[in-house]
TrEMBL record:
Keywords: Membrane, Transmembrane, Transmembrane helix
UniProt entry tagged with the keyword Membrane: yes
Protein name: Uncharacterized protein
Annotated transmembrane regions: 42-65, 77-100, 120-138
Organism, as annotated: Candidatus Pantoea floridensis
Organism domain of life: Bacteria
Keyword Transmembrane: yes
Cited PROSITE patterns: PROKAR_LIPOPROTEIN (PS51257)
Length: 144
């Protein structure tokens, strides 16, 4: 029963993580900007897209990890917690690096600015690919 609930628990955590982490990425973009955003709908829709992306990513990663090597419930739980922590750090680092250039451009502006959802989703895709590649390698090494 515990092994069945594990993907559900981490899927719920991924939804919450995706929703709340998007606000941090938006803060990276708008740091130091005193102007007005022209399209405020991104502030409401981007966290929903990020939450759905994180849910899909966590579910797909969980299944792919189990195809590589099956772990015991305890070992799988520890592995998934480490995976979530690494996802958080890679997201923050990638978000800071990509938004750094954008926020430098925004500081010099005092007019309307538009935030694109694709810029934010690009941050999630890059950080997810980095974390997944790292942890698929770790999982293969742990099998040996």
């Amino acid at each position: 029963m515990r092994a069945f609930c594990l993907p559900l628990v981490f899927a719920a955590l991924a939804l919450l993580y995706g929703f709340y982490s998007c606000h941090q990425i938006l803060d990276f973009y708008l740091i130091g900007f005193d102007g007005i955003t022209s399209d405020i709908s991104v502030i409401f829709t981007a966290p929903l897209y990020a939450a759905l992306f994180c849910l899909f990513y966590q579910s797909a990663a969980f299944r792919l990890f189990n195809r590589v090597v099956k772990f015991s419930t305890y070992k799988e739980c520890i592995f998934q917690i480490a995976f979530q922590i690494t996802n958080t750090f890679t997201l923050l680092i990638t978000g800071w690096l990509i938004a750094w250039k954008k926020s430098a451009e925004l500081v010099t502006q005092s007019k309307l600015v538009s935030i694109e959802s694709m810029d934010i989703m690009l941050i999630y895709i890059i950080s997810s690919a980095l974390s997944f590649a790292l942890f698929i390698t770790i999982r293969k090494r742990m099998a040996d």
